[in-house]
Amino acid sequence: MVHLNQHFLEIPETYLFSEIAKRVDAYKKANPEANIIRMGIGDVTRPLPEACIEAMHKAVDEMGKAETFRGYGPEQGYDFLREKIVEFDYAARGVKISKDEVFVSDGAKSDTGNIGDILALANKIAVTDPVYPVYVDTNAMAGRGGKLKENGCWDNIYYMPCMAENGFVPALPAEAVDVIYLCYPNNPTGTTLTKEQLKVWVDYATEHKALILFDAAYEAFITEKDVPHSIYEIEGAEKVAIEFRSYSKTAGFTGTRCSYTVVPKACMAYDKNGREVSLNPLWNRRQCTKFNGTPYIIQRGAEAVYSEKGMAEVKDTIAYYLENAKIIRNALSAKGYEVFGGINSPYVWMKTPSGSTSWEFFDYLLQSKNIVTTPGAGFGPSGEGYIRLTAFSTKEKTLEAMERI
Ligand SMILES: *Cc1c(COP(=O)(O)O)cnc(C)c1O
């Protein structure tokens, strides 16, 4: 008899986006002429940089000739891309990362989900609340969740509330935790940590022999000086942190798929005898066994992000989204709403007015303004009383939506 992974039966269906779709569909059916603007999308809309397209066209042609054809590539990624990452994303910021600490892959979602393969089941996980659901659900699938509570939280996962009251800065855990997921700039709140605030976490992890899983998918949106682009800008972080980066939000690769994970050789975990072991060879072993590399064509596209033309185009696209975020921020602030994020992030996190719940305010915006947002409660209990607006729409639609408000 085949037994299934029981944990899958315990994980609730992802209710958030299906519930949004259901409510939007119902409204559209009742009001077919409504001009609905979507400010809830978590996907980019601007096309890929021309530099990337040109590089990928060239790579396609190479694949069509016997002399330049490439089959299986290195599981860790091609040197041409790993070298660019080391030079532009790290050395340029004074961070020393070597090529063999960089693992190119097909998504930060997959990597943040898969990293648990090399970590013991017994680890106590800590996440911020609200949270990117991937961190929680993948741990629940593996059996690290414990029991699901009525509020939708797992009793074996430690949740760190991030709200206006604490400036969206998580407090250090009151009990010992082993693995800490941090995502900055944050999805969904759009807020960041300063170097000093992030250092508190690096120091905690050092002292407690814990591991930080740092998701920097929105790094390219950082505009303020004191906000670290990489956790390795903090002294000692290479011993306690793994960093995830992605070309998805940076360069529009959400459908093209390319990302990378940095596992420094100095980054340690402990075996059952308490002996220190480097995680780098473990992740290498994991990738070599379960992953056969990101396509050559795609890696050539990602490499072009670092060309002069590519960097200029990426900068323009990010500026376009950040301009939208500013439009949203300014319009909502002028209306007296309390808003957060949107400065180093494509996300604006807004407090719902006069004590209405996330879903009540979602319904109000849908029905009276024909604007679709994302209810904060869908990201965790501390997201209740907030909604998320994204800057990924067109400027025209963003302006129109804000005019309606
Ligand atoms: C969009 C996003 C990613 C990127 O995921 P990919 O799989 O690389 O497209 C990672 N983390 C967070 C928090 C995100 O919102």
What would the keywords be for this entry?
405 residues; alpha/beta; seven-stranded mixed sheet; four-stranded antiparallel sheet; 13 helices; 15 strands; 37% helix; binds pyridoxal-5'-phosphate; pyridoxal phosphate binding
Description of the structure:
With 405 residues, the chain is of the alpha/beta class. It is built from 13 helices and 15 strands. It has helices at residues 7-10, 15-30, 50-63, 79-90, 108-114, 133-142, 195-208, 248-251, 280-290, 296-303, 308-334, 358-369, 395-404, and strands at residues 37-38, 102-105, 125-129, 157-161, 179-183, 211-215, 241-246, 259-262, 268-270, 276-278, 339-341, 347-351, 371-372, 374-375, 386-390. It has a seven-stranded mixed sheet with strand order 2-8-7-6-5-3-4, with helices on both faces. Helix 3 (50-63) packs antiparallel against helix 10, helix 5 packs parallel to helix 6 and helix 11 packs parallel to helix 13. It binds pyridoxal-5'-phosphate. It is an enzyme of class 2 (transferase). Its EC number is 2.6.1.83. Residues 35-405 form the Aminotransferase class I/classII large domain. Homodimer. Its cofactor is pyridoxal 5'-phosphate.
